[in-house]
Amino acid sequence: MAGFTALPDLALRTLGGSVVAASDESFAEKESLIRPGRPGFQAATFGSKGQLYDGWETRRRREPGHDWAIVRLGVPGVIRGVLIDTAWFTGNYPPYASVEGTAAGGHPSPAELQAAEWTELVPRSGLRGDAEHAFEVADERRYTHVRLTIHPDGGVARLRVHGEARPDLSVYDGLGLDLAALQNGALVTACSDDFYSSPNNAIAPGLARHQAEGWETARRRDGGNDWLVIRLAGRGRVRLAEIDTTNLLFNAPGAVSLTGLDGDREIGLLPRTRLQPDTPHRFRIEHTDPVTHVRVDIHPDGGLARVRLHGHLA
Fold it and tell me: Are 28 and 94 in the same domain?
């Protein structure tokens, strides 16, 4: 799979994404495009509109044209790649698709978005049935919405829009925020191990519902420890750290430590501190120097449901 898929899916419903409009959803609902997880399928399950699909499916067109769906990204950002998944669509997938992006301020209506200026991100490209199609995007601009166009009709199970978050942080002027939140522009830039799940899960919105929605490493046998590095939403002063081991009962780390990074400087934020399983921990941070990154060391291994680093932009 393409390297960009390691980046967060900015369109994901759990990040706040929404399918705001579609030309047609006669057979299967447009909201399925941005659901988390792999598409499911059960043969011979028929509703009043035909076979049930975990995806978006339009009617058979009898006139010239094409179908489309507009997705508001949960987090605006720079798009590094798009994944179009036609899983389970075999005799009803679209033979071609394209993707465009736009940057819209405020809270535009579907009609305003349709009238907006759109930029081509993925040109009209061939698709296969029941397959994932990865398309790299070389564009450094920030986008808030994407439009998936299928030519002429058919079904798409999932649309993934991977990239780097670039939210508008001006709304936090004078206020505190979670400097480690993915939706605020933070990103895990390095990690010792992601055997069971992605380290970016640790900075995702909301609470983890189960172990797979956090970050979990393999068992270490070498006497070392696991770690991840979070690039903060901006250079800032961390005042409160939340280290959450919820759902991790027999695989929680024994301890955690936090180190701030600012250029070549390393700044101790939290010394090695004991953790409990299945517990949200909160630690006040006394050091007030601004940092751009924070290294989270877990001792020796295990998992974290969430990491929150509350503070102020410098």
Answer: yes
